[in-house]
Design a protein that fits this description.
Strand content: under 5%
Distance between the termini: 74 Å
Number of strands: 0
Number of helices: 18
Largest sheet: none
Radius of gyration: 26 Å
């Protein structure tokens, strides 16, 4: 550390003993501050401790509780216990982050989890902001981390191996926003039980009922076909709003077992939410979405944009069926939107383009 400091512009030409003494003083100061960083509210309230302004104090706290995404990724699916603490040298080697920094980040998330677990009456983000004086963006990241960690959401499956912390952070935000109780004031949001019941009802109505399913597929096919721009030669339209030929072939049943694959995708989409109240489903939710929805679209040569167009059209054209066949349909329509929108957003974030796993079975047949 002394050698590194001597290369700093302010230290060029300084004697080694002076640099050593400076480094020793800074280390002593950091050891002194660390005690108060574990008690940030006290640190901010006791102005006599250090001659620092409010902005500098809050900046110190924010910096101390900041984290490296590769390190936090390693903690998502691990229990915050002594066994994980012994794993820190391996985390340091894997991420290239010093062990001391890994330890600080581990202790921070463990401290936040411990002080938040027994509190009720306010949302978790607000509780973290209040207790630790963190900014809303940083407190939100910690809330997402705790949601994934406490619910043991698996982020280590092979199909999820190449995704980064930001991807899982986004997925946690969608799970909380769309599939937990909207009016919950609990510290950790609960899965919305009425939503799971409506999802089961919608699966029976829209997927298992053959007449309704055929009607829905026809409406979706007509709608998506109408999105093909009738533009003059040489003009262009946004590819995100134009269906691909593979999506049209799927909806026109020119892909072998196309209708069966659509039914399977929708069945899984509703089943995930219908069963997410069970800990095993919630734990495996990201892997299920990738393996049974994202990979199904990708294996048929579809893009993430096609998946988005498909789900948006299904939502639009399911509303009429739900309105006609379910009395007091407003809660069911809301559940329909929350179920499929959540699946769509997570699926698009985790979309992986891949070659077909079905080989010649998915060859598109020419239109008759």
């Amino acid at each position: 550390m002394v050698t590194r400091m001597r290369s700093e512009p302010d230290m060029v030409g300084a004697q080694e003993s002076a640099v050593t003494e400076y480094v020793r003083g800074q280390l002593h100061l950091m050891q002194y501050l660390e005690y108060y960083m574990c008690r940030p509210r006290y640190f901010l309230e006791q102005r006599h401790l250090l001659p620092l302004g409010d902005k500098a104090r809050m900046g110190l706290v924010e910096q101390y509780y900041s984290f490296d995404e590769p390190v936090m990724l390693e903690f998502l699916s691990r229990k915050l216990n002594s066994r994980t603490r012994t794993y820190l040298p391996e985390v340091a080697t894997k991420t290239g982050i010093p062990v001391a920094s890994c330890k600080r980040q581990f202790e921070n998330i463990k401290r936040i989890a411990k002080q938040s677990e027994d509190e009720e009456g306010v949302p978790l983000v607000n509780e973290i902001m209040e207790r630790f004086s963190l900014s809303e963006p940083l407190a939100t990241h910690y809330a997402h981390i705790l949601f994934l960690n406490i619910n043991r959401v698996d982020t280590t499956k092979r199909c999820l191996a190449h995704f980064k912390f930001a991807d899982f952070d986004f997925c946690a935000s969608i799970l909380i926003q769309y599939w937990t109780t909207p009016t919950s004031t609990m510290t950790l949001d609960d899965i919305d039980q009425p939503l799971t019941q409506h999802a089961q009802q919608l699966k029976s109505l829209l997927v298992e009922n053959k007449a309704n399913f055929d009607c829905l597929c026809t409406a979706v096919r007509v709608h998506i076909s109408s999105l093909i721009p009738k533009t003059p030669s040489g003009s262009s339209a946004s590819t995100s709003t134009v269906p691909s030929s593979a999506l049209l072939a799927l909806l026109e049943n020119r892909i072998v077992r196309g209708s069966t694959q659509i039914r399977a995708i929708l069945r899984v989409s509703f089943s995930i939410v219908a069963d997410i109240g069970a800990s095993s489903t919630l734990r495996s939710v990201l892997g299920i979405i990738v393996e049974k929805i994202v990979d199904s679209f990708a294996s048929m040569g579809l893009r993430s944009e096609d998946m988005e167009l498909f789900y948006d059209s299904v939502i639009i054209h399911s509303i009429g069926i739900v309105t006609e066949q379910i009395p007091d349909s407003a809660p069911a329509i809301e559940a329909l939107s929350r179920t499929l929108t959540g699946t769509k957003l997570i699926g698009r974030r985790l979309f992986r383009q891949k070659s077909s796993i079905f080989g010649p079975l998915n060859k598109i047949r020419p239109a008759q």
